[in-house]
Amino acid sequence: MLTRPLGELPATYIRCLLVGPEPNDTVATLLGSDTWRLVTMDTGRWPMFSQPTELARILAAQAD
Question: Could you give the CA distance from residue 55 to residue 62 in angstroms, rounded to a whole number?
Answer without folding.
Answer: 11
